[in-house]
Structure to design on (488 residues):
């Protein structure tokens, strides 16, 4: 039996229930708008189901095992046994709790939930196809729409994710057994986070990166402790290479072929690797983590007159509007930076603009974090960014090796760095590498958001002994009167 086509109407159609979409839908519901949220896969989107949350769960679990196994200096001697199935079950339980919570919150805020795939028929109409045999489709007429379809992993030639030994990040977070060996293609944040997870589980990990260092876009002083820790974990790196192909070995496992990146760029990646230049890396599996691309090709955007850039990102203004005034785009599909919290903020702004509120997007205080070992947290301008913008800068830094609390945790690599305007002391940016950097960066994000100065941060009493004291000390260092480190 095929369900007949029906037409319904809604004030706001939200397409995609990830952190950008479900937040937009809930906020619109709070503002007394009639909202319909369409999701084709799972509530919570990639972040809650296949990305942010499951990866951080596995990072936390493997950190516990690694710390227990390497705590001899603290007088602790242990040899933890890893039950990967149990670890995955626990991770899945965390995911299930959060995704079911999203669904409940949406319903509690009178959001109409609809499972299916939405495509635009025109700029006020969408068709929603329901999955499953005989489920049919329906038509939705809307006053406003918010596109929040997110992103997907970029696929590279000859590495199809459907092939069993080839993994994307989703597959790497759901393995049933620990691979003996793993090649990771890409040393960005996804590749480096998962390299740490599997190295701590006992996997021999090799990372292939076309550039000459890890974590493109981050300053060298932030990357240095992460690279050193990766070396300590036994992770091998092959810089300046790009993966070109793979094949199965006669004795089991696979062999990944990589060629020099400059040669691949010169010939467009189409030529056969030269025997004496290529690398051949044996492994059980290969994870491709070379970045993500927007999911904008499933929407029939042209039918609604919506424009994208040459990479497929939907172009928006400071109020999350597309070139079609009553249609908005938020989250990964709206462009860099691809951050869940950035998408959530954009979703709230879009909902408030639709409701007539004076909302706008401000990226000045947009933090970012990498959950490597140690973590990295950044916000605002780097020193070079600020100087290029015309500021005379003053920089303060505090090393975690001078932090009593960091030393008591056994994690004292890294530092806190603050960049400020020398003339008036306003905090312009900050970067942290070290324990709990993803948490510590929040204070400096708030400082930038509120227009705080170095004096404000330095004069704020911080609890002792805590890692957060390092933020205060970095501000004091910039002012020239740090107590627990030498002043510049």
């Amino acid at each position: 039996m095929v369900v007949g086509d029906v037409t319904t109407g809604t004030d706001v159609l939200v397409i995609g229930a990830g952190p950008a979409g479900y937040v937009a839908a809930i906020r619109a519901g709070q503002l007394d708008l009639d909202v319909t949220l369409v999701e084709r896969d799972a509530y919570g989107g990639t972040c809650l189901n296949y990305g942010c949350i499951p990866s951080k769960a596995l990072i936390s679990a493997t950190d516990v095992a690694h710390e227990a196994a390497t705590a001899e200096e603290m007088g602790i001697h242990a040899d933890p046994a890893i039950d990967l199935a149990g670890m995955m079950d626990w991770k899945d339980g965390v995911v299930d709790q959060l995704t079911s919570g999203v669904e409940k919150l949406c319903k509690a805020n009178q959001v109409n939930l609809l499972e299916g795939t939405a495509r635009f028929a025109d700029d006020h109409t969408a068709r929603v196809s329901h999955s499953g045999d005989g489920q049919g489709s329906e038509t939705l007429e809307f006053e406003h729409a918010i596109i929040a379809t997110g992103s997907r992993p970029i696929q590279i030639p000859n590495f199809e994710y459907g092939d069993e030994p080839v993994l994307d990040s989703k597959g790497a977070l759901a393995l049933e057994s620990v691979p003996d060996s793993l090649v990771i293609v890409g040393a960005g944040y996804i590749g480096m986070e998962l390299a740490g997870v599997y190295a701590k589980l006992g996997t021999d990990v090799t990372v292939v990166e076309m550039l000459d260092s890890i974590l493109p876009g981050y300053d060298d002083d932030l990357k240095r402790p992460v690279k050193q820790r990766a070396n300590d974990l036994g992770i091998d790196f092959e810089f300046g290479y790009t993966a070109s192909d793979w094949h199965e070995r006669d004795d089991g496992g696979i062999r990944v072929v990589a060629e020099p990146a400059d040669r691949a760029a010169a010939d467009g990646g189409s030529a056969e690797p030269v025997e004496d230049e290529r690398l051949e890396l044996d492994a059980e599996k290969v994870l491709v983590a070379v970045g993500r691309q927007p999911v904008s090709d499933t929407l029939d955007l042209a039918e609604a007159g919506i424009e994208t850039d040459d990479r497929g990102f939907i172009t928006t203004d400071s109020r999350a509007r597309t070139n079609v005034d009553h249609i908005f785009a938020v989250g990964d599909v709206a462009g860099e930076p691809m951050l869940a919290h950035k998408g959530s903020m954009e979703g709230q702004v879009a909902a408030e603009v639709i409701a007539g509120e004076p909302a706008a997007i401000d990226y000045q205080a947009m933090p970012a974090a990498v959950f490597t070992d140690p973590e990295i947290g950044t916000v605002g301008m780097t020193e070079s960014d600020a100087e290029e913008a015309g500021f005379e800068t003053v920089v303060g830094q505090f090393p975690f090796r001078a932090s009593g609390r960091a030393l008591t945790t056994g994690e004292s690599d890294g530092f806190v760095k603050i960049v400020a305007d020398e003339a008036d002391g306003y905090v312009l940016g900050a970067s942290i590498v070290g324990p709990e950097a993803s948490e510590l960066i929040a204070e400096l994000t708030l400082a930038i958001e509120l227009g705080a100065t170095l004096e404000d941060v330095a004069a704020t009493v911080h609890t002792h002994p805590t890692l957060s004291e390092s933020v205060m000390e970095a501000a004091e260092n910039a002012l020239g009167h740090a107590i627990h480190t030498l002043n510049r």
